[in-house]
Amino acid sequence: MNFDKKLAIKRVVEIINNTYEQSKELLSLNVSKKEGNDIVTDVDLFIEKNIIEKLSKYYPNHSFNAEESGEQKKSTNGDFYEWIIDPIDGTVQFASGMSDFGIVVALQKNGETILGVNVLPKLGEVYTAIKGCGAYCNGQKLQVSKKENLSDSVIYVYLGAKHKNQEIAKTIKVIEKLTSLSRGVRIVGSSACVSSWVASGKIDAIINLKSTQSLGSTAGRLFITEAGGKVTNIDGLPRQKKDTLVCSNGIIHENIIDVIKNLDYTLDKENF
Questions:
Q1: Is 101 left (phi over 0), alpha (psi -120 to 50) or beta?
Q2: Residue 137 dihedral angles phi and psi, to the nearest 5°
Q3: Angle, nearest 10°, between helix axes 42-58 and 5-23?
Q4: Of residues 211, 201, 200, 263, the one with CA closest to residue 237
Q5: CB 167 within 8 A of CB 210
Q6: For the purposes of burial, counting CB atoms within 10 Å of the CB of 154, is it exposed (0-12), middle (13-18) or buried (19 or more)?
Q7: Parallel, antiparallel, or unpaired for β 102-109 and 112-120?
Q8: What is the pTM of this model?
Q9: DSSP state letters, the chain
Q10: Which of 3, 178, 200, 250 could be a cystine partner for 230, CB 3.0 to 4.6 Å?
Q11: Cα angle 192-67-193, degrees, rounded to a multiple of 5
Q12: How far is CA 93 from the centre of its chain?
């Protein structure tokens, strides 16, 4: 039987919206430390648990890879389906009462992302995509920006609590260089938000020099390619499962790659 992607998208959006509303009934916002200074809240755990439970009822043979609980693999004799979940991408902002966070659910078939959903609750934005069918926000089709020059472009750079000293130092050098070349550089704390915004043409590129699975941008990377943009690692090569990340409108992509490649990353020993 063919997998109904449109029905899956509808179910995911409903599950996310209902679960987020239910999470508001939690009596307190308990915050715990993770890697480095990163945090997790009881809302992260509640949302993740509920999304997995509800999707499992619809798709009992599917596997899961979730931010807080890790991988839950199911054996299969056919195609391998795995749901990618980041219950709150941008937990620091969420816990601080800010709006730039998102709830991410994507589905991969044999390692390829075939559909994705990003819900940005505080911003009222619901992003969806099915591979080969375009990307949408609140039902409106998305298209990346047409900016041709870095000097006209707004670029976001990911820098979080999990970055090591060397990665932080390199990222700062990239920020310094791009600040003089672009219209503006901003530091981001939610991959879900900025990947969605690249796809919608609100911003022009995002960069992450840290090699990660980037669960929070899984759906967003599909949005970007479906909206006409480009996704690679910082060497301009196809991104692997765990890798660095450059996403853009495609037009300025090589310019960004050149900036990253040509910087002098010589660092003082005190940075390590």
A1: beta
A2: -125, 120
A3: 150
A4: 211
A5: yes
A6: middle
A7: antiparallel
A8: 0.93
A9: ----HHHHHHHHHHHHHHHHHHHTT-S---EEE-STT-EEEHHHHHHHHHHHHHHHHH-TT-EEEETTTEEE----SS--EEEEEEEEETHHHHHTT-S--EEEEEEEETTEEEEEEEEEGGGTEEEEEETTS-EEETTEEP------SGGG-EEEEE--TT--HHHHHHHHHHHHHHHHHSSEEEEES-HHHHHHHHHHTSS-EEEEEEEE--GGGHHHHHHHHHTT-EEE-TTSSPP-SSEEEEEE-SSSHHHHHHHHHHS-----GGG-
A10: 250
A11: 5
A12: 15
Q: Give me 224's structure tokens.
A: 């970007």
Structural tokens at position 17:
């919206």
Burial of 255 (0-12, 13-18, 19+ CB in 10 A): middle
Q: Which amino acid is at 154?
A: V
